[in-house]
Design a protein that fits this description.
8-stranded mixed sheet; Rossmann fold; single chain; 8 helices; 321 residues; alpha/beta
Length: 321
């Protein structure tokens, strides 16, 4: 008996399905140290990725238990008093991610496994670890163990792009430095088939980006704030003077993500972290005097496939689109 031949209707249906089938969404993984860090340097990037249909996963390494509380009626949550700040900040984090449209969020290992290490400053104003670090502090965590906690996330979510901090943690916070170490090590381990196959099939992240800030943007923002009469925000920093370590010369920046239409989402996400960011903070002051201050975010290419010239998107060049 001769095989059946597809009818015209069957063929049309098959072709229609093929031409209308949606490509698999892009996938982004971000590794941050504490709740609220995700907004400062990647809020617009996350919101844009979600708006473009990408799957965005955030891993937060600690609950931020040592964060300075700026709201008087919540100061009792501090580590030096009743405690409970970490649990409270999970709620703030969820609200912030709601503003950005992100629905996939988890803590490294499990909630509270790694504690906020806190920070201090030396006599030159540089951020350093505190003298007495909590036994469960992230800064003291075994690097292999912490990286292995991230491996199954990488293998399960299969991100094309991984975003974290540079090797100085942007400004020297010990938890940011540790988050960098963990993310970079985990990306290597996750790609090795022989390493812990029980944690999932090996996955190679295709591009790694580090967060940074643009020197020209920072100087211009400070100029506008000073011209508006604000001489104190950002520690009174001179627009023409030395810049802090999280700021890089523009020629070192590989990618600028710009989304002015999403700035309000970023500011709403900032507001969700009410224990940490007051409404008269430099974040909001700069937004008022320099309206598009938070519309741009910048990245250094740290590994994997390079960005094509003129790229404006974190996924640029990863697929034939």
């Amino acid at each position: 008996m001769a095989p059946e031949t597809a009818t015209t209707e069957d063929t049309a249906t098959t072709e229609d399905t093929a031409t209308t089938e949606r490509p698999e969404p892009h996938r982004l993984l971000l590794v941050h140290a504490h709740p609220d860090d995700e907004v400062t340097t990647t809020g617009v990037t996350m919101a844009r990725a979600v708006a473009d249909g990408a799957h965005v996963t955030l891993v937060t390494c600690t609950l931020g238990e040592e964060g300075e509380i700026v709201v008087d009626d919540l100061k009792h949550l501090g580590a030096d008093r009743d405690g409970g700040l970490g649990e409270y900040r999970i709620g703030e984090l969820n609200a912030a991610l709601g503003a950005l449209g992100v629905t996939d969020s988890l803590r490294l290992g499990h909630d509270g496994k790694y504690r906020d290490s806190g920070m201090a400053t030396d006599d030159q104003g540089r951020v350093v670890p505190v003298d007495l670090v909590h036994d469960e502090a992230f800064w003291r965590a075994d690097l292999r163990e912490a990286a292995t906690d991230l491996v199954p996330v990488i293998r399960d979510r299969r991100p094309e792009v991984l975003i974290t901090y540079d090797d100085y943690g942007n400004y020297g916070h010990p938890d940011h430095i540790q988050a960098h170490r963990v993310a970079m090590y985990a990306a290597q381990l996750a790609a090795i088939p022989a390493y812990r196959p029980d944690l999932g099939e090996a996955w190679q992240v295709r591009r790694i980006l580090w967060t940074t800030m643009s020197e020209s943007w920072m100087r211009e923002g400070l100029r506008q704030m000073r011209a508006a009469g604000d001489t104190e925000s950002w520690g009174g920093m001179d627009p023409e003077g030395p810049m802090p370590p999280m700021v890089r010369p523009d020629d070192q920046i590989a990618l600028t993500v710009s989304a002015p239409e999403l700035v309000d989402r970023k500011l709403d996400a900032f507001r969700a972290h009410r224990t940490q960011i007051s409404f008269d903070s430099p974040f909001f002051q700069m937004a008022e005097t320099y309206p598009q201050a938070w519309a741009n975010e910048w990245f250094v290419h740290a590994g994997g496939e390079a960005l094509p010239a003129g790229a404006t998107d974190i996924f640029a060049g990863l697929r034939d689109e």
